[in-house]
Design goal:
The chain is of the alpha/beta class. It has helices at residues 24-36, 56-70, 85-93, 115-128, 139-142, 148-157, 171-180, 195-200, 215-226, 230-246, 254-262, 279-292; strands spanning 7-11, 41-44, 76-79, 102-106, 133-137, 161-166, 186-189, 205-208. It has one domain (7-229): Aldolase class I (TIM Barrel), CATH 3.20.20.70. Strands 1-2-3-4-5-6-7-8 form an 8-stranded parallel beta barrel, surrounded by 6 helices.
Length: 293
């Protein structure tokens, strides 16, 4: 059976107008662009969406807009993380999961729990979720690294924990989870630059940032890799690798919003504390894009 989140996923940005209101027209166009260019599923309200700066009402409006435009054509994942499991559970209980195919839940941040705390946190969240759960390990942002043994423990204890989005940068951790995870559990890259290596050791794809601007190029790369066509996938990977890195030079979504502005897909507007790219970085991204297209 094919994993529901195999392939190329995208962590959707939230486009803003110059007055910092949500640009719903751009969001609808973004969703259509992703689907028509081969992306396999969409992720709403992730880090790249600047979710911490969206009010609860805005978050609901964003998901409603995306659901309407997707119209069940591809799976939709919604971000539901935090550092208090009981607040996440309350959010789950108050959420309409119609046309939502999974949730992405980041490890608790700031309070830096021990591995036992991480495991118990996720067991509560998974028990409460009516849809499949993608765990999300991104220690560079959260301040805590979830060990592969902890991930496997959660996956074995919770049948609806069907994947982890891994952004620790530790290839050995990926291999351990692929080897020891239960049947049906998968590893998804949380970093564009590591997607190909992770697939090579048994991962199933990526939740991408660059796909917001270049969905066709990114989906081609992932599909080639998942089909075992590594020489062709490597060629695309090497072609895009410098751009992958540039997008994070001044943080995310700073870089991707600059690239989307260059490609005409969104205005170059971020909400504080995220700021737009410096003039120097904007020019670097613009120049590197010419080497990719």
């Amino acid at each position: 059976m094919t994993h529901p989140f195999r392939g190329a996923g995208v962590a959707l940005v939230t486009p803003f107008n110059e007055d910092f209101s949500i640009d719903f027209d751009a969001l609808e166009n973004l969703v259509e662009d992703q689907i028509s260019n081969g992306m396999d599923y969409l992720v709403a309200l992730g880090t790249t969406a600047e979710t911490p700066t969206l009010s609860a009402t805005e978050q609901k409006e964003v998901v409603k807009c995306i659901k309407s435009k997707v119209n069940k054509r591809v799976p939709l994942v919604v971000g539901m993380g935090g550092n208090d499991p009981y607040k996440i559970i309350k959010n789950i209980e108050e959420t309409d999961f119609t046309d939502v195919d999974g949730i992405l839940s980041v490890t608790p941040y700031y309070n830096k729990p021990a591995q036992k705390g991480l495991a118990e946190h996720y067991k509560l969240v998974c028990k409460a979720s009516p849809v499949p759960v993608i765990l999300y390990n991104v220690p560079s942002r959260t301040g805590v690294n979830m060990a592969p043994e902890t991930t496997v423990e959660v996956a074995r204890a919770c049948p609806n924990a069907i994947a982890t989005k891994e952004a620790s940068g530790e290839s050995s951790a990926v291999a351990k989870m692929v080897k020891h995870g239960p049947e049906g559990f998968a590893v998804i890259s949380g970093d564009d630059v590591l997607a190909l290596p992770i697939i090579a050791v048994g991962g199933i794809g990526v939740i991408s940032v660059i796909a917001n601007a270049l969905p066709k190029e990114l989906s081609n790369l992932i599909h080639l890799a998942n089909d075992g066509k590594y020489a062709e996938a490597r060629e695309l990977h090497l072609k895009m690798i410098d751009l992958f890195k540039l997008l994070f030079k001044e943080g995310n979504p700073t870089g991707i919003k600059a690239l989307m502005n260059i490609t005409g897909k969104a205005k170059n507007v971020c909400r504080l504390p995220v700021v737009t790219a410096s003039k120097g970085l904007y020019k670097e991204i613009e120049a590197e894009l010419k080497n990719v297209l």
